[in-house]
Specification:
It is a single chain. The chain is globular and about 60 Å long. About 40% of the residues are buried. It has a single domain, classed as Type I PLP-dependent aspartate aminotransferase-like (Major domain) (Aspartate Aminotransferase, domain 2, 3-Layer(aba) Sandwich). It is of the alpha/beta class. The strands form two sheets. It has a seven-stranded mixed β-sheet. The protein has a two-stranded antiparallel sheet with strand order 6-7. It is built from nine helices and nine strands.
């Protein structure tokens, strides 16, 4: 693997740093990158964090809040952070073997393993391959079992004319050095669920209510805690896994290039 941060990426970063007073910590560039990534992927909401491992961590923290503790079906072929996030969040990992054709969870055995203790299925799309099948998606829907997609190695891969990362309740991406695109370090959590999005934003930054972009959500906590300063209400035992404006500048440069390339290919 060689450095995939190009000269044009660095030029965009230098241009940003040359501004009179460039903000470095999370701000407008992060918000813009999240919006552009959501549009490219085809989801409503994205939350930029400091690594794919952190994306795993807060995704499962939010799932735990929604479902309670129990079993989480996971593959034996994945990166270690999927399993550590499972353990740290109190889920019991239940390993199911992979399909040798897709290198992802085998659909039939996964569905057969589901029981009353199952709280979700955490699938990994390995090395650019799609791990989904109609059998798996239909079976999970019938059983009302949430799907979490690890797409850290498969940016842009498709299933049935939709990008991976748009099928599950939440999905995770990594922008590490060795992946399809890099923001030096970085990750993203994506979802179409507005309530989960607000929770993910809070978990990313210490559990702070002020991180929510929904006025109703903030008001709810303020009314419930009238003696507290509204800027310092902590709703969840969250983390500090924010990323910087610098990573977002590089990410925006790359995502815009990807968008142009995709559209040029479609036009061709």
């Amino acid at each position: 693997m060689w450095n995939n941060i190009t000269r044009s990426d660095l030029d965009a970063l230098i241009e940003y740093l040359s501004e009179e007073d460039p903000r470095l910590t999370q701000g407008g560039q992060v918000a813009a990158f999240e919006a552009e990534w959501s549009e490219w992927l085809g989801v409503k909401y994205s939350v930029y964090v400091n690594s794919g491992s952190s994306a795993n961590l807060i995704t499962l923290a939010v799932l735990r809040h929604q479902t309670g503790l129990g079993d989480l079906i996971v593959p034996p072929l994945t990166w270690v952070s999927d399993i550590t996030a499972t353990l740290v969040n109190g889920f019991t990992p239940v390993f199911v073997d992979i399909d040798p054709r897709t290198l992802a969870l085998a659909s039939g055995p996964t569905l057969n393993k589901i029981n009353d203790a199952t709280r979700g299925v955490f699938i990994t799309h390995v090395q650019g391959l799609n791990g989904l099948s109609d059998e798996l998606l239909d079976g999970l829907e019938r059983r009302n079992i949430p799907l979490i997609e690890d797409v850290c190695e498969s940016h842009g891969a498709m299933f049935k004319n939709r990008k991976l990362g748009t099928f599950g309740l939440m999905s995770n991406f990594s922008f590490y050095y060795a992946h399809h695109m890099s923001t030096i370090e970085g990750g993203m959590v994506c979802t179409d669920d507005e309530d989960l999005y607000q929770m993910l934003r809070m978990y990313r930054s210490h559990g702070m209510v002020r991180e929510s972009t929904n006025p109703k959500t903030r008001l709810q906590y303020q009314v419930s805690n009238p003696d507290l300063n509204p800027d310092f209400i902590f709703a969840f035992p969250g983390y500090n896994v924010r990323n910087s404006e610098l990573g977002a500048v590089i990410g925006r440069t790359l995502s815009q290039q990807s968008y142009l390339l995709e559209n040029s290919a479609l036009d061709f």
